Sequence to fold (329 residues):
Amino acid sequence: MGEQTYDPVLSFEELPKWRLTKPVRPPRPGSALVLVRESGPSLTIRSGEEIPSSRFGAYHGVFTVDMTEHRLILDIPLLSRDPTFSFRSRVDLVCRVADPAQVVARGIRDMSGALFGYLRRTLREVARDYDIAEFHQAERALNGTVAGFTGDDAVRLRNIQVELLVDEDEIATSGREFRDVVRETRLSGMRRGRHLDMIREEGLDGLIAEIMEKEGPRAALAWIEKNEAEKREVRREIMRLVLERGDADREPFEQAELERTVLEEVLRDGEGLFDGAARRGRLRGSLARAADPAPALGPAHEEDEPDRRPLRGEVVRDEPHGEGGRPRA
Fold:
């Protein structure tokens, strides 16, 4: 399991000048000693090495430095080509102290902090060339940049891997939205295909039938009337433009012929929605009866009765009584 950071200096101890009864102990495996002299360079003692002048000598302090390998994980934000967007990068690496004396001289007490600045500058130079949408390309380029980086004389690095991250909530949300879009797109395509097949096979009559099935006869009748009103309005507008806008280069008889043609087109019902005026009238009447059923029939009025004419050879009888109830002569 990786660590966020670690302190390479395990301990520091001040040393007295005379150490006859308490000499400097050699380092344990996995660690090293850095003996700091009062003047001159420090002395590094690794595990298994002897300590010169351990009971006396010009050492005023000793640092114990961790020499083992540590796996570190660094989260480094990287700006993309558009500075308003950034990549979330995670750098996974293995590091160890190579020169304990340099680590002590530099004052490195936070290993991730010491590596963060350099890695951030190096990776940002690469990330700035990629857009936030170029996710995989940017990740490959970042890994190619740090593939050969091994650190310096003080700290050694290996197995550096850069991973660009996406937030878990964003993954769940975007995945759900993607599935919703795919589902809705598929259903919309199925509906659209069904409507197209219906129009090809049954024409607009099928469309009107579906409107009537879903919304009732009133909606279908309203759709028909609206469609025909719009067509009539377009025809009237065309006729108005032709009649009001003359052409100086056109002969009077040509203008009259044009106006006559346009007028016939405006007044013509044409074949459009229901293949003929008679069929349109029957369908409109059926829909109207379905939308507003007629009341029950009552007794017929006299004016509604058809004329009764005598047939040839038929004897027409007068009323049996005339005025005042007397038989007619």
User: Anything to note?
Assistant: The chain has eight helices and seven strands.
